[in-house]
Fold these 4 entries.
Entry 1:
Amino acid sequence: MARSWKAGGVALFLAAWGANLAFDALYWVVPLLAPPHLLHDHMPEAIRLMVSPAVLAPVTSAVLAAIALLVLSLVPPGTARRVWRLTAWLLFFWFLSEGLLAWVWLDAPGTVVAASLAAGVVRSLAMAGLLVWLQGSPAGDR
């Protein structure tokens, strides 16, 4: 079967990393959209003194990008409602990773953590759509 254009693993990773960084940058515009890993003011003082948000954002975005690529392999091309299934997987890992981080490290009010985690819904949907679009699909599926 002939394939249409398809992005490789490095391009997918870089796109996912860039998209995650873009979502992290929204924090500077709308602080309510800050993901848990950027709730720097609610971290223990020892962590705040060691690591700045300028370091946390790119490193955490790279980890989230790697998770997104791993999850992409769980939902192969041609799967029905692929974007929605991929979104569900990404959201699961968002709540797992960021939720555990918030639970263990943050001393933030519940409403702040809930809003921070809820922002992952849009982030996961956008990431799924981007990765599926970039990965391409078999020519007959378009």
Entry 2:
Amino acid sequence: MAKKKTKLFPSQIRYLEKNPVISFRLKKEEKEKLDEIVKEINTSVSKWVSDFVRGKVEKEEEKLRLLEINKVLEKANKTLRKKIENEIRFKVPCSVCGEDLVLKASDENWDSKIYPILKKAFYNWCHGDCANES
């Protein structure tokens, strides 16, 4: 049984002329790699191939590389922020030279000497909201 020819509309003919069909074969491993690439950048194979032909793919790969680096830096930044948040620091000027003297909770004499002096020095200080309540 012969296939029945269907007449194309003029708009279909123009579309097919402007957008020709291209097909090619890849090895299974290459196809899987291509699928992985387009999945990572959230695009279609045809869009990726089109970008590749136009020379835009290198920019996309650079974006992916920078995104990976950014993820690593964000994780390190988060870890560092946690460490900093857990660190109690108090900065006062040195009585001799005037430069900042940083007192930290990790100092070995914090509990025995530094904290009691700070607590005594600021015993009547309070939050702005707390002052309004009293």
Entry 3:
Amino acid sequence: MRNFLFLVFGFLFLVSCQSNSSKIPVVGSLDSAAIATDTIMQKGFESSYEFHKTLTVHEKLVYDVVGYGGSSSAGEYAILRRGADNKTDTVTKGARNGIIAKTFLADSNKNTKEEVYVVIQNPSNPSETKTVKYEAK
């Protein structure tokens, strides 16, 4: 009887130690390791630039505005298009003499094509700004 109990407890112990890494996640379950990895990667990406903002047009299209290089008063900017096709495309880039103060989407000419606006501000004189516009073709 003692050997039988030992065998049962041993079997239960082995069954409880199995990893569920082979299980397919179902709706409602979270893969916390994947979320942590993605979050760390995203934070690293964002902190490697002086400025980064994602502008969402709709669920299948976003634009990333990135400020990089140089000091806070000089450097470059780039506008990247990311669509459902997963191809990142740099749509425009250029030099900036100042910091990126604001970015936003608009359709000021009402032609149903999104426009990305980047407001560059002189850090020594905040009222001095320059606005760069990119319109999708």
Entry 4:
Amino acid sequence: MKSKGQILAFEQVMLFGLGVAILIVSFSLFMLYQNYYISETTQDQLTQVKEYVLSNIIRLCEKNEFNSSLVLSVPERIGNNFYRISLSNTGLNLTLEPEGGAADFSKLYGLNETFDFNGMVISDSGKIVIYKTGNSIIIQ
């Protein structure tokens, strides 16, 4: 027959093990939620920067001047990563660096029929310049 002290020690060890298991499960659950919200926030920030750049490209296209430019301040990092802004006749693309990260793309609402778009810039300087020269829109 087991003594009362052995049963009490066994209960305490089981209670401690249960506490550790609850701690590990809680930590894992919170890490899953944190990763989900970080990815959603990163995607939302990419979309906001893309819409900001795109609206200024449209604004520049509407200007009647033959040569003009805009200097835009953009965040240097999104989600602790630099990002690349690429402009081509197919559209505007933002991609987190290094490759394989989140990305966001937008078409140019038919402006590519009138204008020629090109250029690429990395966000490390915190600003981008958009030039309009004739029917060419260049991003640097």
